[in-house]
Specification:
The protein is mainly β. It has one domain (about 15-65, about 115-150, about 190-415): Porin. It is about 15% helix and about 50% strand.
């Protein structure tokens, strides 16, 4: 016999990211204490689509993804890249031109990032006993990234170029300044050995998730389950070395989560559900660029850094109305992740600390779900196949250091 409520797997989906950016993902389904009946299997296919454009900053305010590349370039920044007579010429210009000093803004770099990510997740679920359900999930991510950079030159740079060309006494220094400031983001990437930013589409396998769910108590009104989720680093990682923007199938380390779910049947067709989950992200080693002078575009590379991604806690509340297989549900999720820590011996402690800056995360999510299953009709011998379909929309109205990406999830399941 197949129950109307089936196992709902909370999947850790791989998503778009900058190297070092958020790894916290929005939920794709409601909490549930349901388990599979003994001997019943299910094949689920989830399709998750998202087009993130904004993220929540450390203070909770919103910004566009490309704003990470926005920076005011001052005399102080320009002088860091110059040497000898050319550096002396620019210092001379700063002294000779009224109102110019180390903090004078010469230009502002700009960036625009557009991402479309589609994640396909095949899920296998099996009822080992009437109380124990086992599952496997393996996401596959296809991501298209379009990126563009440029510069908005300010009035003071016109005066600087004119001085260098006419009075600076440094041959061709004005022309070199023009060349260097056409696209300073691209030049900085090139100078530090980074791959150029480009439009690309990638398809990558994600991390395998092994799910276990145990029903520990139930009666006519209540059901309680304990669960575990082991995430193995089977996915393709981001190219941490010399690549600023990249897609990823997984984060390259092992996670172990433990949780509890409770269902309360308040009437024949209405169930309130709650869930609490804690996930440990185990320490590992990895290779990457270590920031220098606060900038992630750095030629400092450590191939044996120690990384400790912060542990996560998640709490959820939901209500589901189910009448003869027709379902409507609404849920709220709160997720919190501790700060990441990076250590190494090759560069300064401050540079490694910079990698963990603004990596503590908070996410508030609201999830709405509609669906239908033929299980009731199958039991009544009015439909030949037990299956279910659902559509989920996830919203992220508030957060800290996370992508503000709404997601759409389509779920198709067959039971046998």
């Amino acid at each position: 016999m197949i129950k109307k409520s089936m196992l709902i797997s909370s999947l850790l989906l791989a998503g778009p990211s900058y190297a070092g950016m958020s790894n916290m993902k929005a939920p794709t389904d409601l909490p549930s204490a349901a388990v599979m009946p003994k001997g019943v299997r299910s094949l689920k296919l989830l399709r998750v689509s998202t087009s993130p454009a904004k993220n929540y900053q450390n203070d909770g305010s919103e910004s566009f993804l490309g704003d990470a590349m926005k920076k005011n370039i001052t005399y102080a920044e320009i002088l860091k890249t110059k040497k000898g007579i050319e550096k002396a010429g620019i210092k001379g210009a700063m002294s000779a031109i009224p109102g110019h000093d180390m903090d004078t803004v010469l230009m502002t770099t700009k960036g625009q990032v557009n991402i479309q990510a589609n994640v396909t997740v095949p899920v296998f679920v099996y009822g080992i006993s009437k109380k124990w359900t086992f599952g496997l999930a393996l996401p596959i991510t296809k991501q298209s990234t379009n990126v563009d950079t440029g510069v908005e030159q300010q009035a003071p740079i016109v005066s600087l170029r004119k001085y260098l060309s006419e009075e600076g006494g440094v041959p061709n220094s004005g022309n070199r300044l023009v060349r260097d400031t056409v696209n300073p983001v691209a030049k900085s990437l090139s100078d530090n050995g980074f791959a150029p930013l480009k439009n690309e589409t990638t398809t990558k396998m994600g991390d395998l998730k092994i799910i276990n769910k145990f029903r520990v108590w139930d009666n006519d009104k209540n059901a309680v389950t304990l669960g575990s989720e082991l995430t193995l680093p089977t996915g393709e990682e981001k190219t941490y070395v010399n690549k600023l923007i990249d897609s990823a199938g997984g984060d390259g380390q092992t996670d172990l989560g433990f949780g509890v779910n409770h269902d309360l049947k308040v009437m024949n067709y209405l169930t309130f559900s709650s869930g609490l989950k804690y996930t440990v992200q185990f320490k590992d080693n990895f290779a990457g660029n270590v920031p220098k002078n606060g900038s992630p575009i750095s030629d400092q590379i450590d191939y044996n850094m120690k990384r400790d991604l912060g542990n996560e806690v998640e709490a959820a509340l939901a209500g589901t109305f189910n009448y003869r297989g027709a379902k409507v549900g609404l849920g709220y999720f709160y997720k919190n992740k501790q700060r990441d820590e990076y250590t190494g011996e090759k560069y300064s402690t401050e540079d490694y600390l910079e990698m963990g800056k603004d990596t503590d995360q908070v996410m508030h999510s609201v999830l709405a779900k509609v669906g239908y299953d033929t299980i009731t009709l199958f039991k009544e011998k009015k439909f030949p196949i037990p299956l279910s379909v659902s559509l989920v929309q996830t919203f992220v109205p508030k957060g800290k250091n996370v992508v503000a990406n709404n997601m759409t999830t389509f779920d198709f399941s067959m039971f046998f």
